[in-house]
Specification:
- The two termini are 18 Å apart.
- It is elongated, with a radius of gyration of 21 Å.
- It is of the alpha/beta class.
- The protein has a seven-stranded parallel sheet with strand order 3-2-1-4-5-6-7, with helices on both faces.
- Helix 2 crosses helix 15 and helix 7 crosses helix 13.
- Strand 11, helix 11 and strand 12 form a beta-alpha-beta unit.
- The chain has two domains: 195 residues, Glycogen Phosphorylase B (Rossmann fold); 154 residues, Rossmann fold.
- It is built from 15 helices and 13 strands.
- The longest helix has 22 residues.
């Protein structure tokens, strides 16, 4: 098979889970003898460099945090140039990496699209009213010959909002690769709970803060470290002060994946309070570093975490605190979750993801040729 991946995620993301997903897919399928080509004429993504140069048609541009107008211009330029390149290469299938108004290949070539989540539809109040993502997603899924969802939860939500796709959807879970912890000691004064990633509305960071503030046992024994997601906003700083945490007790840390691995490894527990995730890699990252997972019980979390997590209702600050307490004050429960986490990781590998995706490609190509 000749498989083309388009430019979109590699223009939009310098790093990120979506671009990592496609780089790992390309890597796995190339090793199996498939002809793979990424068409990203001008890209800012840092992960593409890990692929053999022969697999990438494009030029890396030096751009840290591209201004949005420039990013928009690059998307338009890339769409035009990539379409020409893809048409000349004549692939058997194009896998579009995000949601665009127009197809990346010709109408003579089938299209597969991956849908990662339905956050823009389920939590529209957290996005600008002119955010085009949901509209573009609808256009992309309508024209796709087949859609891959990264969880059963995302598939259910996709069909709820776009019922017309029901007969052309499959589920393929993401793979996972662990990072080695940085060989250095993190500057940590006392035991801490770890939160990872952005802190947007649906991520529910505010309820996590409130739950810790309400529990004297947790408040007096643990700090809270928020890794990534940028420095605390003025509103977050006000909330932390209002809840009477001192400035050292709740803090934000940034760093690379290896430093994050160290923070997972040394945490008393990883807490995942999100209302909604399309898949959710952080719990798997925690499991890989023998860190117990305490998570909300909504959307894809139970599907990914399985028995390897202590669950709570993310709307209840009392339940959040109680679930954390059941883990951090019980050595046996913590050890049990670590053991179950190691076993759970075996279900999420890139070879499995690539095998299932390759099977879908073959089916789509065969169906397209018959019609």
């Amino acid at each position: 098979m000749k498989i083309a991946y388009d430019y979109q995620t590699f223009t939009l993301q310098a790093y990120g889970g979506i671009s990592r997903y496609f780089v790992r897919l390309a890597e796995e399928l190339n090793q199996r003898g498939q002809e793979i080509r990424v068409f990203a004429p001008y890209y800012c993504n840092q992960l593409l460099s890990s692929l053999p140069a022969s697999l990438v048609e494009g030029k890396k541009i030096s751009s840290k945090d591209l201004p949005k107008p420039l990013t928009a211009g690059l998307l338009v330029a890339n769409q035009l140039i990539a379409k020409i390149g893809i048409s000349r290469w004549r692939p058997d299938l194009v896998h579009e990496t995000y949601y665009a108004m127009r197809r990346s290949g010709s109408k003579k070539c089938p299209v597969v699209l991956t849908v990662y989540d339905m956050i823009h539809e389920k939590f529209s109040q957290h996005f600008h009213k002119v955010d085009p993502t949901s509209f573009l997603k609808r256009q992309a899924v309508k024209r796709a010959d087949h859609i891959i969802c990264i969880s059963e939860s995302t598939k259910r939500d996709l069909i709820e909002f776009f019922p017309f796709v029901e007969n052309k959807v499959s589920v393929v879970h993401l793979g996972f690769s662990a990072y080695a912890p940085e060989i250095k000691e993190a500057v940590i004064d006392k035991p801490y709970l770890l939160y990872v990633g952005s802190r947007n509305g649906h991520k529910n960071f505010t309820n996590l803060l409130q739950s810790l503030a309400n529990s004297e046992k947790l408040r007096s024994n643990f700090d809270l470290i928020a890794f990534g997601g940028g420095t605390f906003s003025a509103a977050e700083q006000d909330a932390i002060a209002h809840l009477k945490f001192n400035s050292a007790q709740v803090r934000q840390v940034s760093g690379n994946d290896n430093l994050l691995a160290l923070y997972y490894k040394k945490a008393s527990a990883f807490v995942y309070p999100s209302y909604y995730e399309g898949f959710g890699l952080p719990p798997l990252e925690a499991m890989a570093q023998n860190c117990a997972v305490v998570s909300s019980n909504t959307s894809s979390m139970p599907e990914v975490i399985g028995e390897a997590g202590e669950y709570f209702d993310p709307h209840s600050t009392e339940q959040i605190a109680q679930a954390i307490e059941r883990v951090v004050f019980s050595h046996s429960r913590k050890e049990e979750l670590v053991r179950l986490g190691k076993k759970r990781l075996e279900l999420f590998t890139w070879p499995t993801c690539a095998t299932q995706t390759q099977q879908i490609y073959s089916q789509v190509i065969n169906q397209f040729e018959r019609h």
